[in-house]
Recover the amino acids of this structure.
């Protein structure tokens, strides 16, 4: 290392560093900075005594340990020697114990960890000051750098809240962090039902004598049991009784006597916009660890994040040189590097946390233990089906068998079970061969509403591509119901015959089913084909003229641009309902297997459901129940015209993504209403109701809506949106988050998406069209070769 201005460590140049808070972040940063340059003057100030700390054990993953080994092998070695290591996860649920392996955790007592770090700090010459409560960063006027590692309730973060802009969300569950002397050989989750709701315990051994025992429940369950009035001893007695079968006489213990009141906490999720500043003394102050971000214990990564923050800061000093003048650059780089990594982890932790928040109401009573276990293991949505296979092949294969046995699959048991994606699904008299649906996609290529050769080739190719069902694009019951002049219809027999040709072709040349999606564009009609300006009204001159548009209430979809729709009169409502029915009758004659009613995306029926677009003051506006009245009327009329033995689904926007619009909780009520009217399945899309929407995109981003509706409304669902690989489909179906997965854009890129994905995961028992079979084996062996050459995947932490 040199002390030149080009970077590197500047031996001899002294930096004065003060860490406020001697948790994992402060201590690890302190020892690494001293190690980087022994002439650095490093002090860690901690309000507690050296052996006085809250909590019991913390868990790490193997990856964190490797990182620590690179930066300070001594502490890593000591920590490793003190570890409890385990691979298995046990679920205790409804009188069963289900075990799955390969999860690779290590646990260590928090006290032990801190003592190792403290001792290492002392050996390296870091000054440790205990029993000193710091009131302000400005007490250290000569410090170059002040590390605010003062934990989740950081005083320093609060002091500079205007700059750091913390966003703190207090979560609804209550938890108490206890310990016990009973030792467990697996990370154990124990779920117990009471008369007021479910409790869960997260249990893991962290040394030879002690186990962490965190008990958690929703606020309403906690209140119903009067735990808000219970002191620590009463809370412990309550938990001992609740988990008596598990504890078998062992006692629960607290070491949080310093907390006043009940010691049941709410988790606070902390995110900060800015991580550092320069204070009035000219010292730089930087947030680290829980002070700047928190990750819920459901994912067990808070300590990992704190340690990795420290590592990153030191890495930046190593790159830029540890001189006071480099501090601003170092801090800027530190924030940039850590912000993204932290958000990624916080997102995963958020999913896992939410799972535990809702599991009592959403999963515990609904799912059987096997599926409950799968849902729990994949709760963060970072662990996928194939990842579970890597961890514990035997358990996953057992689960696949269990899952397949709950489907109408007919095959010899000796063949083993197919992955969940390739199990059949039956609704009314229709059985889909697998769980993949080609999502409806407008092609804007019909002439006078008649689907032509283009549609035959487009839909035919996708029917040959392996999906269980192809849903044709939104098809309109009248010319005015079209989105664009290129949209197909079913308002005359010529269109019906054209559809029949396609349906017959699909039935004659594939084993896929084909569905029609009937919808009316409402205020989003009379617009250009997507490639000429999506949602824009037809041009004033040339081509087809604009036609008048209707919706629940007067509306202009693109402000200042779209035509203004008018509110439907009752006469118009009658006419449109009858047109839906007539289109349905033609769909029957065309031979479709399935009918989907389009009530999503701001189109006519959706415009009645959303309060953003329905401002009527008659019986079709107002409460959700009233807003649903007309869509339900149309649904019932269509259902009556659609054969009893054929299924009917409804596509909804389960979230408007706009304040004051439809929420996922409303969507559950919408689903219940359609279910009561005879719907078999809800296709859970979202958005496109208002241009003000702010959507949080991400892989499988709408799947939580399908999951929630499936469990809470008790109806089959389709998940759709950014589902792009077999692993996604398998995880969604296996966890019971949906019954089918609709895949749209990937099918534009590759009509044979399902066949390709099957080959990718090595599932060979899919039928290819006989004309294409020579390509099957070649594709399978190409993917197998690619997989063999790729580095072995590393399982991610739960
Ligand atoms: C129930 C529960 C279970 C958890 N399980 C895990 C797990 O399994 N794995 C995991 O990695 N993480 C876990 N965590 C999170 C983990 O404990 C924290 O993320 C981690 O300790 C953060 O380290 P830190 O150094 O930033 O903060 P802390 O560990 O909170 O340390 C902050 C320190 O600053 C001190 N301090 C605060 N203010 C002052 C002041 N004004 N003056 C002087 N000293 C001050 C405090 O006394 C404390 O020692 C869990 C947390 C909870 C609540
Ligand atoms: C070109 C295109 C046209 C679409 N047309 C329709 C449609 O007619 N009806 C409908 O309900 N959704 C339609 N959608 C939405 C898709 O069905 C699907 O919900 C959306 O694209 C998200 O899925 P994906 O991430 O797999 O693409 C369309 C999407 C695309 C890309």
């Amino acid at each position: 290392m040199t002390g030149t201005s080009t970077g590197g460590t500047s031996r001899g140049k002294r930096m004065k560093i003060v860490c406020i808070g001697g948790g994992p972040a402060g201590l690890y940063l302190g020892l690494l900075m001293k190690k980087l340059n022994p002439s650095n003057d490093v002090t860690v100030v901690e309000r507690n005594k050296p052996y006085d700390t809250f909590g019991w054990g913390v868990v790490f993953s193997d990856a964190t340990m490797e990182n620590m080994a690179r930066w300070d092998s001594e502490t890593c070695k000591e920590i490793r020697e003190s570890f409890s290591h385990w691979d298995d996860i046990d679920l205790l649920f409804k009188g069963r114990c289900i075990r799955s392996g390969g999860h690779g955790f290590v646990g260590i007592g928090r006290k032990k960890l801190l003592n190792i770090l403290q001792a290492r700090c002392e050996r390296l010459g870091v000054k440790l000051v205990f029993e000193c409560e710091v009131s302000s960063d400005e007490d250290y006027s000569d410090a170059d750098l002040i590390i605010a590692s003062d934990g989740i309730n950081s005083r320093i973060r609060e002091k500079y809240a205007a700059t750091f802009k913390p966003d703190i969300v207090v979560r609804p569950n209550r938890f108490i962090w206890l310990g016990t002397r009973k030792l467990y050989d697996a990370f154990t989750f124990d779920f117990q039902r009471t008369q007021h709701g479910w409790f869960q315990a997260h249990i893991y051994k962290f040394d030879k004598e002690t186990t962490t025992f965190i008990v958690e429940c929703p606020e309403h369950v906690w209140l119903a049991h009067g735990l808000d009035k219970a002191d620590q001893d009463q809370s412990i007695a309550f938990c001992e009784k609740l988990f008596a079968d598990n504890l078998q006489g062992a006692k629960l213990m607290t070491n949080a006597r310093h907390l006043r009141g009940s010691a049941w906490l709410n988790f606070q999720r902390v995110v900060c916009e800015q991580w550092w500043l320069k204070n009035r003394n000219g010292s730089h102050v930087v947030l680290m660890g829980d002070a700047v971000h928190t990750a819920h214990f459901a994912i067990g990564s808070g300590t990992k994040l704190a340690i990795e923050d420290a590592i990153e800061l030191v890495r930046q000093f190593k790159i830029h040189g540890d001189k006071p003048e480099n501090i601003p650059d170092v801090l800027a780089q530190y924030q940039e590097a850590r912000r993204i990594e932290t958000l990624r982890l916080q997102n995963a932790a958020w999913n896992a946390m939410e799972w535990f928040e809702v599991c009592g109401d959403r999963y515990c009573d609904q799912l059987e233990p096997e599926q409950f276990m799968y849902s729990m293991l994949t709760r963060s949505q970072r662990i996928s089906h194939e990842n579970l296979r890597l961890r514990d092949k035997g358990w996953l294969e057992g689960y696949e068998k269990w899952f397949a046995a709950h489907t109408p699959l007919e095959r010899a048991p000796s063949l083993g079970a197919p992955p969940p994606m390739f199990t059949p699904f039956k609704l009314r008299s229709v059985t889909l061969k697998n769980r993949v649906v080609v999502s409806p996609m407008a092609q804007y290529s019909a002439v006078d509403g008649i689907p032509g050769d283009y549609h035959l080739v487009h839909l035919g190719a996708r029917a040959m591509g392996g999906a269980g069902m192809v849903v044709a694009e939104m098809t309109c019951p009248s010319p005015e119901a079209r989105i664009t002049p290129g949209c197909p219809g079913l308002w005359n027999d010529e269109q019906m015959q054209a559809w029949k040709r396609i349906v017959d072709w699909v039935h004659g040349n594939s084993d896929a089913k084909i569905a029609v999606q009937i919808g009316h564009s409402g205020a989003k009609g009379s617009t250009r084909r997507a490639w000429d300006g999506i949602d824009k009204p037809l041009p004033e001159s040339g081509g087809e003229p604009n036609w008048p548009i209707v919706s629940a209430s007067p509306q202009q979809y693109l402000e200042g641009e779209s035509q203004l729709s008018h509110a439907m009169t009752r006469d118009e409502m009658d006419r449109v309902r009858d047109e839906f029915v007539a289109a349905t009758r033609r769909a029957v004659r065309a031979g479709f297997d399935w009918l989907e009613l389009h009530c999503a995306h701001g189109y006519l029926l959706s415009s009645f459901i959303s309060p953003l677009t329905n401002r009527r003051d008659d019986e079709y506006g107002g409460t959700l129940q009233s807003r649903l009245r007309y869509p339900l009327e149309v649904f019932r009329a269509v259902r009556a015209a659609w054969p009893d033995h054929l299924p009917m689904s409804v596509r909804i926007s389960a979230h408007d993504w706009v304040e004051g619009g439809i929420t996922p909780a409303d969507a559950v009520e919408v689903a219940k209403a359609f279910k009561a009217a005879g719907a078999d399945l809800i296709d859970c899309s979202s958005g496109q109701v208002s241009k003000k929407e702010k959507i949080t995109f991400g892989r499988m981003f709408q799947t939580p809506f399908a999951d929630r509706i499936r469990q809470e409304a008790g109806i089959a669902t389709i998940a759709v949106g950014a589902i792009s690989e077999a692993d996604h489909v398998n995880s969604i179906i296996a966890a019971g988050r949906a019954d089918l997965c609709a895949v749209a854009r990937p099918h534009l890129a590759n009509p044979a998406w399902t066949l390709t994905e099957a080959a990718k995961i090595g599932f060979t028992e899919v039928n290819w069209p006989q004309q294409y079979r020579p390509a099957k084996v070649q594709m399978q062996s190409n993917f197998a070769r690619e997989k063999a050459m790729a580095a072995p995947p590393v399982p991610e932490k739960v």
